Amino acid sequence: MPAHHDIPATPDVLVFGVFEPGRAPVLEIASGDEVTLHSLPAGGRSCLHPDPARVPAELRAALDAHDAAPGPHFVTGPIHVRGAEPGDVLQIDILDVRCRLDWGSVSILPLLGTLPDEFTEYETIHAEIDAARGVAVLPWGRALPLAPFFGILATQPPRIWGPVTTPVPRAFGGNMDNKELRAGATLYLPVFEPGAGFYAGDGHALQGDGEVCITALETALTGTFRLTVRKDLGYAWPFAETPTDLMTIGLHESLDEAMRQAVREMVRHVCGRTGLTRNQAYMLASLAGNLRITQTVDGNKGVHMLMPKTAL
């Protein structure tokens, strides 16, 4: 029977801002096992709640332990999945995602975001997270529905790349900031290193497509994942699906090129799942596919395309 594992948010299982090659796994599991991990919010000391009593001791301990690290994201991992080899795909079933803090932060930061030259009055605000009501209450009183997800879901980057900072998403996934990757979704990431090396972090209580000011509502999450090695897929690029849609992911410095990549990937996946020609799949993408801007702030911008499964 598949086993269930739990990883606390302690300093020894966290990285802060960089995926290091050769990092020892924090856990080794069998393919098909489930893992529950407890994350800490991004942003560092400048984003802590102004009431010290509301800052958990584990967050202070993590900041003290990783004071010299580059930040800004706390990420848990890597998790070694036995049997995973380069060229395989790690199937990540997102089973559950929940807020574990009663607050989150939103920031405008120097030289970051979509309009960095127009917003130079830098500030951080804090919203109240009311899990019982399922809302976040902003300082000016507006309540918005919670929709928690992990901004960073990744496999270990190729060792030859050396240390890779967390902000920029790439072929291994990483800081994709895709709000569709909530509980119930399945993400597929290529494996570049033995054991896959799964990471998760950068918890968001809610976010709009675009994440334009540089942050979502940054908070701590608890997530449960089923990790399965797939040797039958051969995907070289992140791909996902929800109960209702296929989802292709484009990541590039150019938003136009990220869009083209998402469309190109959707054509390929539709052809792989149906008897349609490339021309037919391309036309179907025009009729039924939905392009959305994932985020515009992470170095490599993101575009994802959703294709309703009912259209296949």
Automatic annotation (TrEMBL):
InterPro entries in the record: FmdA_AmdA (IPR004304)
Gene3D superfamilies: Acetamidase/Formamidase-like domains (2.60.120.580)
Family annotation (PANTHER family): FORMAMIDASE C869.04-RELATED
Protein name: Amidase
